[in-house]
């Protein structure tokens, strides 16, 4: 499909109210340069294989309620759309239903705003049943908000009988009712999925390995890093939103410790609230993680703004990155794309900010990253030594199910000495099951 992309740049004072009332406000989006915003919009369009015929930055001194752009600008852009024979116009800004309808009329082409475009990408990328349900829910919530006299057929009266709609019910009321019914059905199905995911998470928690979650701006290299660290084969491409469905794999740490690592959906500036809500079950993996790795594309000039965007979404999930430095570790990825001077500067800055500079492609910094992950995870988990008698099978079984057994030594006559690592929340239970006097701090 032939498309053109417009990135409206609102006057700072005019745009402030819109940003403050945005579906997902972020400080980072406001700091990004107009050119960077345009490049990201073009990247989003390219993510669903659109044929981008033209793109441009469009200053908007004063947003118009009917069309966003002024009448003269609408006519000027209409000429460009006709010249490029475009079927689709992407406006990298939220549009009201009225603005979308009026622009489609003026340009004689389908119009998608930023939210609609992201929804299209998510719809194409989702693979699992849960992912498809989440995307469909977000689509329906978005469509329901569009049912405000957007199309002339919605004003028609229709008759009806039984449950198909009472006499005189308008088409818009029928459409809204059908959407509401479908939304309710999907929400019920997702609640079942959420309960199942909770059971799976509790099952993993019984296996005493801490959880690590990868988060970051879309296309920061999370999936490539995930594959490199775990040996998995998750789709990793240089496109936005290559990963939607979460994947969890075991992660072996340098000194024998183990953890589970999850790869999650990428974040983006002005991520629609409908998507944040729809993917909340998936994002619970982040909320429950013992350690969060915030992967940043340090080669991207907008990396600082992207950091603010990711932290804003984390804050929506109840995670304050600045107040929980031990739980959130920044991983500065794509070091292989930096020239020597920039690489040296990045190394110094990473050291100053407590970040780890890596390249998921070349392997640089990965040993240091794994060591830091292990250090941070073990910081919360106490290492103990306990001797277990041969008749204490129940105790031995409990330890293996709830603690990480680092080493085992046979002392003779069936007695074994276990060196274990225990999470803080299970320390008291272990003391009750085994007897506090038997637990000895292990010598590291």
Automatic annotation (TrEMBL):
Principal subcellular localization: cytoplasm
Keywords recorded for this protein, A-Z: Cytoplasm, GTP-binding, Magnesium, Metal-binding, Nucleotide-binding
InterPro entries membership: G_HFLX_dom, GTP-bd, GTP-bd_M, GTPase_HflX, GTPase_HflX_N, GTPase_HflX_N_sf, HflX_C, P-loop_NTPase
Entry annotated with the keyword Metal-binding: yes
CDD domains: HflX
Domain Hflx-type G: 210-381
Compartments it resides in: Cytoplasm
Pfam annotation, one family: GTP-bdg_N
Gene3D superfamilies on file: 6.10.250.2860, GTPase HflX, N-terminal domain, P-loop containing nucleotide triphosphate hydrolases
Cofactor dependence: Mg(2+)
PROSITE patterns reported for this sequence: G_HFLX
Sites where the protein binds GTP: 216-223, 241-245, 263-266, 333-336
GO cellular component terms, A-Z: cytoplasm
Binding of Mg(2+), residues: 223, 243
A GO molecular-function annotation: GTPase activity
Role of this protein: GTPase that associates with the 50S ribosomal subunit and may have a role during protein synthesis or ribosome biogenesis.
Quaternary assembly: Monomer. Associates with the 50S ribosomal subunit.
Family according to the record: Belongs to the TRAFAC class OBG-HflX-like GTPase superfamily. HflX GTPase family.
HAMAP family referenced in this protein's UniProt entry, alphabetically: GTPase_HflX (MF_00900)
Protein name from the UniProt record: GTPase HflX
Native source species: Methyloceanibacter caenitepidi
Organism lineage: Bacteria, Pseudomonadati, Pseudomonadota, Alphaproteobacteria, Hyphomicrobiales
Gene from which this protein is expressed: hflX
């Amino acid at each position: 499909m032939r498309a053109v992309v417009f990135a409206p740049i609102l006057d700072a004072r005019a745009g402030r109210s819109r940003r403050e009332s945005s579906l997902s406000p972020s400080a980072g989006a406001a700091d990004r340069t107009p050119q960077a915003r345009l490049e990201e919009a073009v990247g989003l369009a390219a993510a669903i294989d659109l044929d981008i015929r033209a793109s441009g930055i469009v200053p908007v001194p004063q947003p118009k309620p009917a069309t966003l752009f002024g009448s003269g600008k609408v006519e000027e852009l209409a000429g460009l759309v006709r010249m490029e024979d475009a079927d689709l116009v992407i406006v990298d800004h939220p549009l009201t239903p009225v603005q979308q309808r009026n622009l489609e009329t003026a340009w004689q082409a389908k119009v998608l705003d930023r939210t609609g475009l992201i929804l299209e990408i998510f719809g194409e990328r989702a693979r699992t049943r849960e992912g498809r349900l989440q995307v469909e829910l977000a689509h329906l919530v978005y469509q329901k908000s569009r049912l405000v006299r957007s199309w002339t057929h919605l004003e028609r009266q229709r008759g009806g009988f039984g449950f198909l709609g009472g006499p005189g019910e308008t088409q818009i009321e029928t459409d809204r009712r059908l959407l509401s019914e479908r939304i309710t059905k999907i929400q019920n199905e997702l609640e079942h999925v959420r309960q199942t995911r909770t059971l799976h998470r509790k099952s993993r928690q019984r296996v005493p390995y801490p959880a690590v979650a990868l988060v970051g701006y879309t296309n920061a290299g999370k999936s490539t890093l995930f594959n490199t660290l775990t040996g998995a084969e998750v789709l990793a491409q240089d496109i936005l939103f290559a990963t939607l469905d979460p994947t969890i794999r075991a992660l072996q740490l340098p000194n024998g410790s183990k953890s589970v690592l999850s790869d999650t959906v990428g974040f983006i500036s002005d991520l629609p609230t409908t998507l944040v809500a729809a993917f909340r079950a998936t994002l619970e993996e982040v909320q429950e993680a013992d350690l969060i790795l915030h992967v940043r594309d340090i080669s991207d000039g907008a990396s600082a703004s992207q950091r603010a965007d990711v932290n804003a979404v984390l804050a929506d999930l109840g995670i304050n990155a600045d107040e929980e430095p031990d739980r959130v570790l920044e991983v500065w990825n794509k070091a292989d794309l930096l020239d020597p001077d920039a690489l040296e500067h990045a190394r110094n800055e990473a050291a100053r900010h407590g970040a780890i500079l890596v390249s998921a492609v070349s392997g640089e910094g990965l040993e240091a990253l794994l060591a830091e992950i292990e250090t941070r995870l073990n910081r919360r988990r106490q290492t103990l030594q306990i001797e277990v008698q041969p008749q204490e099978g129940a105790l031995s079984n409990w330890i293996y199910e709830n603690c990480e057994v680092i080493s085992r030594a046979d002392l003779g006559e069936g007695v074994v000495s276990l060196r274990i690592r225990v999470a803080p929340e299970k320390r008291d239970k272990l003391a009750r099951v085994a007897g506090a006097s038997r637990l000895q701090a292990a010598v590291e």
